[in-house]
Amino acid sequence: MALSIAHLGPSGTNAEVAAILYANWLAQKTGQEPVLCPYPSIAQTLKAVGQGQVNQAVVPVENSVEGSVTITLDTLWQLGTLQIQWALVLPIVHALLSEAKTTETIRMVYSHPQALAQCQGWLETFLPTAQLIPTPSTTDALQHLEDNPTVGAISSHRAAQIYNIPILASPINDYPDNCTRFWILSLQPSPGGHCTSLAFTVHDTPGALVKPLQVFANRGINLSKIESRPTKRSLGDYLFFVDLEADARNPAVQAALEELARNTETLKIFGSYGVLPSQPFLGEERGIASVRYSGSHYG
Question: What average pLDDT does the structure give for the chain?
Fold first, then answer.
């Protein structure tokens, strides 16, 4: 039975490209031919794995310009059962797609909130009066064009090619080194690797956060990231996402996690994993064409 991989759709999103790159790598490594399953949102993508509808999911977790993709973190905490298998870093290039001949006629620009934010400087310079309208994905933004020269959409070169829409300007992202980190998740145990991700809540007492962090400091375990998110239980109540430069299979790390559990209210460990090199996969159009797709999950 083919391995199914969920991602944010429709076809043409950066999440789809990340899923394709991972599927190509998996096919070369195992001989399996995965099936891609596009979903209308990141939350639905993750829930599809949690509910057993698909085997794995590829979701964005952090952008080098805009930071964390909060819906990914919030849904991962909410589900609590998913394990990270791999990470993949993908260079992101945004383009302005439109039927307009020049930017002067554009009055509205549609795209995913992350894409709009990553192009904020360019938009303020070249389209300062345009209304910016968020969409569920960069590909969903394209349905608003409809031969209308007053509308533009921020999407990818791949989407422009798939849907035969002219590119008016590219690249329009504010920083050339614009990259997004994706996680591949499933219900299976993580394979181990030099990165470990977890999240926890603490008791509402003075110094409550210091004790968990000291657990790692005492053992020389480096934290590459720590970020707070609201628990949504009450104002001022937070949970903390942490990335470690360590493998949870290491006895010293296991001891740290056991002590961490004693110093937190709730602890969820999302696994240890490695980072797939994305560069060898870029531009493999033959591989992209060979990937199979399941039926639509759009209502």
Answer: 92
Domain co-membership, 143 together with 253: no
Whether 71 and 143 share a structural domain: no
What are the residues whose beta carbons fall under 8 Å from the beta carbon of 199, sequence distance 6 or more? 73, 76, 77, 239, 240, 241, 242, 267, 268, 270
pTM for the structure as a whole: 0.91
- The answer on 201 and 170 residing in a single domain is no
Domain that holds residue 104: 95-177
On the question of pLDDT at 285 being above 80, the answer is no
- Bridge partners, 198 (sequence order): 242, 269
Entry field: residues in the chain: 299
Number of structural domains in the chain = 2
On the 0-12 / 13-18 / 19+ scale of CB atoms within 10 A, 21 is: buried
- List pLDDT tens digits, range 35-52: 999 999 999 999 999 999
Q: Give yes or no: residues 36 and 118 share one domain.
A: no
Under 8 Å between Cβ of 150 and 166: no
Q: What is the pLDDT of residues 64-110, one digit of tens each?
A: 999 999 999 999 999 999 999 999 999 999 999 999 999 999 999 99
- H helices present in the chain, as ranges: 14-30, 42-50, 70-79, 113-118, 120-126, 157-163, 210-218, 251-262, 285-290
